[in-house]
Amino acid sequence: MIRFGPAGIPLSCKGRTLRDGIEDVHGLGLNAMEVQMVRVNVFDRFPDEEEVGLSPLEVESDLIMEIVRVKNKKEVRITKPTEKIREDDALITLASGLAQNFIELRELGQMGKEMDVQLSMHTPYYMDLASNSELTARCMDNIRWAGIMTDQMDGNLVVTHLGLAPDKTKKQAKKNITENIASIMEWWEDNKIKPLLGFETSGRQEVFGSLDEVLEMCDQIKGTVPVINFAHAHARENGSLREPSDFGALLDKVRDYVDGHFYTHFSGVEHEGGNERRITPIKKGDLKFEPLADYLAEENPNITIISSSPLLEHDAMYMKVIYERVLTKRVAKESKVKKNGKERDEDEEEEVEYEGLGEEPEIEEEPELPRPKPKAEKKAPPRVPEKPKASVAKPPMKASAPLKPAPKQVPAVKKKR
Hints:
- By secondary structure, the chain is of the alpha/beta class.
- The protein folds into 2 domains: 2-38 and 99-333, Divalent-metal-dependent TIM barrel enzymes (TIM Barrel); 41-95, Alpha-Beta Plaits.
- It has 12 helices and 14 strands.
- Strands 1-14-11-10-9-8-7-2 form an 8-stranded parallel β-sheet.
């Protein structure tokens, strides 16, 4: 199946809640939405009396992401959302504007399923998993929290960037990133988080995330998949995506990693020297969607295409329209070719039959007898005079009528006298 959707709540959406966004996406005829985990504000507080004994999944007042508990005079952070809250715990809550609590997240997930809107989530765009600084710790928290929220929404994927890796420190950066992701995925497995973690390809050379680097990470860490950002790949390779075969070759490289479902981003892009300068609307950049639409119509892959264009839902709908137009033309063309081929096959079969029947093609004229003209000739039986001979005797009866005037000739006899 091919799905299209925006990266975030549609710009045209009157309400700015996630619920409004899902409804709008469905109303626009789209069937995917990537929830954006942006403007995340973290607060810590003590639990209210009525919250003690409940799990974070049951609390209605806040979106509680972690419980901080003292064990053996050390603070321990518990990220398991089914853990029961104790009176002396501290709670770390998340104010993101996405949902008030986990109960609402589950309702939104059910809503997405009913409206056939596939949900996923993107972590904050600036990530640093390489420096092992305080910022790295916060970025790792964001990935874990995104995993919990996406799991509660029954989403299928969490998408993230990986961070800077300048040439001078690339080797060490790669090592740190790999170790930090491995640590996150251990927690992922311990907490039975169902969505996969996807690494988005980057658009700049100094940002870790070339396709080869992403695939190498996926080889090493279970539960991770590559996410193809076509605009980023196009920019890093100096505008390499021009023909349908270029898109096909790119997707073929990740086919063995995605378990039958490609997850991708598309937008326009301005680039220079192998680096993305800025993301643009699709019509503004030199990356065109039509070649990809040709590939999609030919191969019909199972793929989700998220519009990361500044126009969001407008360009998501534009891509859907272009794809459907290309598909319609292809189907019509194939139908016409198939029809013409069938007609040619029938003609050839008729010729073979005629050759085998010898002179019988002349007999082919016999079926013409039932045509309207011959049927008119069959009306002759009533007009054939020879059929009933009794009708011949009737004329003398008509001839007897002229015998009556015979007495009028009597005067001529008188003249003879």
